[in-house]
Automatic annotation (TrEMBL):
Record domain SLC41A/MgtE integral membrane: where: 60-184, 263-388
Pfam families, per the entry: MgtE
Cellular component annotations (GO), alphabetically ordered: membrane
Upper classification of the organism: Archaea, Methanobacteriati, Methanobacteriota, Thermococci, Thermococcales
Similarity comment: Belongs to the SLC41A transporter family.
Main location: membrane
Location in the cell: Membrane
Protein name according to UniProt: Cation transporter
Listed transmembrane segments: 54-78, 99-117, 129-154, 166-189, 195-214, 226-245, 251-273, 301-323, 335-354
Gene Ontology MF term list: monoatomic cation transmembrane transporter activity
Topology in the lipid bilayer: Multi-pass membrane protein
Organism name: Thermococcus eurythermalis
Keywords: Ion transport, Magnesium, Membrane, Transmembrane, Transmembrane helix, Transport
Organism superkingdom: Archaea
Length: 397
């Protein structure tokens, strides 16, 4: 037993060093991306809440959808690279085809999210909201698809485990692009409705051209039926997060800082969950996990847990600075409650991610296709509940 304990200790030490050397930089980069998007959300939160409230309902779903679709693509590429099924080059034809498939998978859930928002009574400027989310989905999906491919393939070529860096960067780039693109389209519609419509038509034409160029077949789209059903169901489930965000938008805005760090909180929880799910999936496929209680898997979680106080502190410090720079306002002194609770919420999500990935694999369901989208979505729900609770504690509501 002492020998086993020493081996586990050495393994944990090695993974802690890897977590700080490889994963933490990608998590901190992801924080910068998420806080960039959060700056737009925080600054225009009141305008969105009053003029285009439907965007608040669909926002978590759109953010989660992009993380789900392209996070699972990164995990799939990682597994394919290790198995030799994908050449380590962004020029591989499978890359373009996979990107187009993921773009197609994204459009129907986005429309359904909009429809749910309308059916739940948020009809103000509904058509404008639809145009914004469709155009944003096409453009962001195209950019994010190539970003995902580049991060996964380049990290693999440099001897870095893609599972350790791809998921955080992909999810964060989605956040980095999502909120600013929505805000920019809002400003474009306000200033030039004709210009926005022309831009919308050009974007659709680009989408049709790329689809034809990739030569995607219906059979190939059908092969992703499981992913499509999963992301669509999860997108609809994300309306829980959207409804919470819309319902408690006043309290969140009153807390000041939570409007700014909301995207970063959701993305970081999703990042931790996705990293654990991706690592667990790869180990399961390679036969390295034989039972639920696996020291190798739990040392991954413990190593990542040691980074959570750093990520939480950076998030708060940058968030406080952004609030001051963009609004000139201060934040409530009770903001410290976020620093205390954030690491344990992240730990809960990581343990949940490992358990879900393991159970799905044992039931012959590929975690790459299901676990990461499900975890990302659930992390958004848990994260939104966490933000609402923190807002209530901070403003005393």
């Amino acid at each position: 037993m002492p020998v086993i304990g020493r081996e586990v200790g050495r393994e944990l030490g090695k993974k802690v060093r890897e977590a700080y050397r490889v994963t933490l930089p990608s998590l901190l980069t992801s924080e910068v991306f998420g806080l960039f998007g959060g700056t737009f959300l925080g600054k225009y939160f009141e305008s969105i809440r009053t003029q285009l409230p439907g965007l608040l309902v669909v926002l978590p779903g759109i953010m989660g959808l992009r993380g789900n679709v392209f996070g699972s693509m990164a995990s799939r590429f990682s597994t394919m690279l290790y198995l030799g099924e994908l050449s380590p080059s962004v020029r591989d034809r499978k890359v373009l085809k996979e990107i187009v498939l993921r773009m197609l998978l994204s459009l129907i859930p986005v429309f359904l999210l909009w429809a749910v928002g309308v059916l739940t009574g948020i009809k103000k400027n509904a058509f404008e909201v639809l145009l914004i989310v469709i155009t944003s989905t096409i453009l962001v999906s195209f950019i994010l698809g190539y970003f995902t491919s580049a991060v996964t393939i380049l990290s693999f070529r440099r001897g870095i485990d893609p599972d350790s860096v791809a998921a955080p960067l992909v999810a964060s780039m989605g956040d980095f692009l999502t909120v600013p693109s929505l805000v920019l389209f809002i400003l474009l519609i306000e200033r030039s409705p004709e210009g926005f419509r022309a831009f919308n038509y050009a974007t659709i034409a680009l989408f049709l051209f790329v689809t034809a160029l990739s030569r995607v077949r219906l059979k190939e789209l059908a092969e992703l039926k499981q992913v499509f059903v999963t992301v669509t169901a999860l997108a609809l489930l994300s309306t829980v997060s959207g409804s919470l965000l819309a319902r408690f938008s006043g309290i969140i805005q009153a807390s000041v800082i939570l409007g700014f760090i909301y995207p970063a909180i959701l993305s970081s929880f999703g990042n931790y969950g996705s990293i654990v799910a991706a690592k667990t999936s790869t180990k399961l496929h390679l036969g390295e996990i034989e039972g639920f209680i696996c020291p190798k898997a739990f040392t991954d979680i413990l190593a990542l847990f040691t980074t959570t106080p750093v990520v939480g502190a950076v998030k708060l410090l940058i968030g406080i600075a952004l609030v001051g720079l963009t609004t000139g306002m201060g934040v409530p002194g009770s903001v410290w409650v976020i620093a205390l609770t954030y690491p344990f919420m992240a730990l809960f999500i990581m343990l949940y991610s490992y358990s879900l990935s393991y159970l799905l694999f044992r039931h012959n369901i590929d975690p790459d296709s299901v676990a990461i989208p499900l975890i990302s979505n659930n992390s958004d729900i848990f994260g939104t509940l966490y933000v609402v609770l923190m807002a209530k504690l901070m403003v005393g509501a």
